[in-house]
Amino acid sequence: FLVYSAAELKQNHEDYNMEAAMAKQYASDTCLEIVNDALQIFGGSGYMKGMEVERAYRDAKICTIYEGTNEIQR
């Protein structure tokens, strides 16, 4: 819903910065939480290079940093 709200505001040439930041923060936090759960399931092998879970973790973690860290956007 947040993404659609931000897109609608942008399309109507209104200020959408708050909604876009909230959508980015929610999506990246949720993604990181899910990948952390997957790492717990895989155990130590989930951190090994070449594992899909390891790559998913790296990708999820960087999403919390791109375009302003989630801590700053809170």
The percent of residues in helical segments reads over 70%
Distance between the termini: 18 Å
Strand content: under 5%
| CATH fold-level label | Butyryl-CoA Dehydrogenase, subunit A, domain 3
Number of strands: 0
CATH architecture: Up-down Bundle
Q: What number of structural domains do the residues give?
A: 1
Main β-sheet, in a few words? Answer: none
Q: Low-confidence spans: pLDDT under 50, at least 5 residues?
A: none
Oligomer: single chain
The SSE string, one letter per element, is HHHH
- Kindly report the name of the CATH homologous superfamily: Butyryl-CoA Dehydrogenase, subunit A, domain 3
Briefly, what CATH class? Mainly Alpha
The coarse overall form would be elongated
How does the helix and strand content classify structurally?
A: mainly alpha
The total count of helices amounts to: 4
Provide the gyration radius in Å: 15 Å
Average pLDDT works out at: 89
